[in-house]
Amino acid sequence: MKKTIPLIWIFLVPFMVSACLKNLPSENRNPIQNTPAEEQTASGQTALSQTESTVVSDQPQNQTNQMNILLGSNTLPAGTTFDDPWDYCKAVGTINTPGSEYIGKSPNDEVTESVLQAMGIDLSEASNHITIWRCANGQVWGCDSSSYPQCPELVDFSTQPSEIIQNECAKPGMENVTLPGAVTGYTTAYEWTCKSGVPQITGQGVTADEFGFNANIWFPVIRLP
């Protein structure tokens, strides 16, 4: 019996070692596959992350564009000043309201004369008019704020009628009445007409330039000889 036991171990040991080797991890084994649901979730998270990244990166650029229009599309050296609107606009590029760099006369007589001529108003009436000006792509543009108080306002393209417009159309006897600017406001781009007690857009009376201002009341200002 004592001799039999060692002989059994001699036969068993190779089989045990072989079984252990088969169970060891292998680099050639196939990786664990994600289920379709897991892949869809991962893809959605990646797309959402990319979208959020795009939105965040776009915001500073949009803010920069707005600041360029408000503060000037060109950067001026510190301490630079101008007393001439044409030289100022050539330097600053585009700005909605002249900044502190402009130290010239305001209102400017030459701007007023040019705007009144464009409007067909006799220059003898210049004292009754106040004009404002701005820079657009290096060009001086003027508007008679005495005739058009909405000069500095951007055109409103909202298609939702204001409460005042709705109330006006709800009054008796307003059928097919096109509301005047005193009711609609002078910044709206549209003509509003009352139909069955409800305001409807029946036309567009105002167009805007590339910067959003009323193109019908702003005129390029030509430097007088």
Question: Could you list some keywords that capture this structure?
Answer:
single chain, 225 residues, alpha+beta, two-stranded antiparallel sheet, 6 helices, 12% strand, elongated
Class computed from helices, strands and strand pairing:
alpha+beta
Shape: elongated
Overall mean pLDDT stands at 79
Total DSSP helices: 6
- Written as H for each helix and E for each strand, in order along the chain, the element string is HHHHEEHHEEE
> How many β strands by DSSP?
5
Low-confidence stretches: 24-32, 35-71
Strand order within the widest beta sheet: 1-2-5
* Beta-strand content: 5-15%
Distance between the termini: 131 Å
- Main beta-sheet annotation: 3 strands, antiparallel
Helix content: 25-40%
Rounded Rg: 38 Å
Explain how this protein is built.
By secondary structure, the chain is of the alpha+beta class. Among the domains are: 61-148 and 215-225, no CATH class; 163-204, no CATH class. The chain is 38% helix and 12% strand. It is built from 6 helices and 5 strands, in the order H-H-H-H-E-E-H-H-E-E-E. The strands form 2 sheets. Strands 1-2-5 form a 3-stranded antiparallel beta sheet, with helices on one face. It is elongated and about 60 Å long. Mean pLDDT is 79; it is low at 24-32 and 35-71. Residues 30-62 are annotated as: Disordered.
